[in-house]
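Notebook, student rotation project (T.W.).
Task set for the rotation: take a protein with a known small-molecule partner, predict the structure of the complex, and write up what can be learned from the model alone. Partner molecule chosen: 2-oxoglutaric acid. Sequence and SMILES entered below by T.W., checked by me.
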Amino acid sequence: MAPIFNDGDSHDLFNFVVRDGYGVKGLVDLGLSRVPERYVQPPKERIEKSDATSHQEPPIDLSKLDGPDCKEAAEEIVRAAETLGFFQVVNHGVPVELLESLKNAAFCFFEQAPEKKAVFLKGASPCPYVKYGTSFAPEKEIAFEWKDYISMVYTNDADALSYWPQHCKEVALEYLKTSINMVKRILEVLIARLGVPVEDSVALIDALVDLKMVNMNFYPACPNPELTVGVGRHSDMGTLTVLLQDGIGGLYVKVEEDVDDDNNIAGSKGQWMEIPPISGALVINIGDTLQILSNGRYKSAEHRVRTTSTQSRVSVPIFTISKPKQMIGPLPQVVEKDGLPRYREVVFEDYMNNFFGNAHEGKKSLDFAKI
Ligand SMILES: O=C(O)CCC(=O)C(=O)O
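Predicted structure of the complex:
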């Protein structure tokens, strides 16, 4: 008989969604008319659509970086990194048909029977670099996120093709390989602007994107979007994130400082802005590592995801992160200019362990390195 989760059954619910790998999808398949209590967010974490505005900046055309308008394109990238920390790009070099295949592959993976996905649960997975799960840190969270995910860390092509899930390995690998050139190109612009000489920037950029991870997120249609979150408020710990979102919408970014757009206020401090889906575009966001390296000049934006009651949503982020043993701290060129470091030097591995050891809580992850 299908389990019914009453409010007192928190333990059974945990076992069902987390330990046994049914996830939110398994819960939804039971035919719920209201989310279990464990998914109800405290009022301050709930996402009120009417409190948010929509990000109206046009996507940045990355092909301009290789033409006569390269200065203008570089300026747009730097400005976005310094203000919202989020921007969208087109002509990014990732084939648009591939983006469609990725979304389909994500749906195919999550639509499978729970036992097919459960083979990738932590501890059961045939490869330590592939992990299927639900919510970010269910052991630590007061309320779970309404999200299932599969996470695939890249080591080499052969491992990816052997161990990543059948439904997504080829498209995910191609996505990663075609995106990484774009990531490096954007980093070249951002790192050059910090005053790092070209001869040093190649090695620095390679170290900053040494580890790469493709995730697929699945947010099933939810009976109570007003009570839940798909992903709670957080910033990304790595260098740059590339995100493919489908057409449903629901990604919100917090404006850290007033954003002026030709003397109009495009966003006010503390306001949430939705990043609207744009067909064929990719979303780029700055991670904590770049905020630390730039001594706070580039913003690792706090963001979160709302659920919807009408359709399931998928998104496919690529996280680029440093070598575990890499020392991360403000670059000397920036400290010299600013007169003081705002962050201490940390071993990236320690930063990462602290990030994954806690539930999402806005930009609190950065406190680990703050002076
Ligand atoms: O699904 C999204 O739009 C964002 C996902 C996200 O923030 C994450 O996976 O960390």
